[in-house]
Amino acid sequence: MFAVPENSLVLPENTRLLHPVRVALAWAADRDRWKHLLRYDPEERFSTLVDKTDDQEIWLMSWLPGQTASLHDHDHTSGAFTVVSGLLTEVVTTRIQVVHSLRAGQSRVWGPGYVHQVRNDGVDPAVSIHVYRHGTRAMTSYRYDPVNGPVR
Ligand SMILES: [Fe+2]
After folding, report:
1. Where Fe cation is bound, by residue (predicted)?
2. Band of the pLDDT at 136, cuts 50, 70, 90?
3. Which ranges of the chain does DSSP label H, i.e. alpha helix?
């Protein structure tokens, strides 16, 4: 709970700084902006840059059944991703691992120090939109140690 001081003003929303989940949802819904870029790569998860501004990057990814982004963080970036179609499984890793099953329209956010794995455990291809803030898309790989948690 928090108190709002008297005479507080609600500032107009800066559309450039919408929450990354809202941005991801908007891009997910606006398929005409990216559907011509969508591919499915049997060799590895497909990803392509869709849009880039001074504030953020928008990436489109596709996941065939069984394709995985192995355990990683996103360095100093923060952001969010939204499932456009299909099912994705996210495993958030600290000293324990927490599994989130995500379907179309569901989103997850991350920030520095957030370590996760994302994979398609479903039987159909999945598509997702990812928003990266405070830098370009970056990934540092980890392995999971059951005693110490994620280890570089
Ligand atoms: Fe990630």
Report:
1. 72, 74, 116
2. confident
3. 20-29
Is the sign of the CA dihedral 69, 102, 52, 75 positive or negative?
A: negative
DSSP letters spanning 4-19? PPTT--PPPP-GGG--
For residue 81, the CA-to-ligand 1 centroid distance in Å is 9
* CATH number of the domain encompassing residue 26: 2.60.120.10
CA-nearest of 126, 32, 18 to 80 is 18
66: left (phi over 0), alpha (psi -120 to 50) or beta: left
What confidence category does residue 2 fall into, taking pLDDT thresholds of 50, 70 and 90? low
Q: What separation in Å is there between the alpha carbon of 16 and the centre of ligand 1? A: 22
CA of 147 to the centre of ligand 1 (A): 22
* 129 assigned to some structural domain: yes
Burial environment of residue 42 by CB neighbours within 10 A (0 to 12, 13 to 18, 19 or more): exposed
Query: Is 134 a known ligand-binding residue?
Result: no
Q: Is 74 labeled as ligand-binding?
A: yes
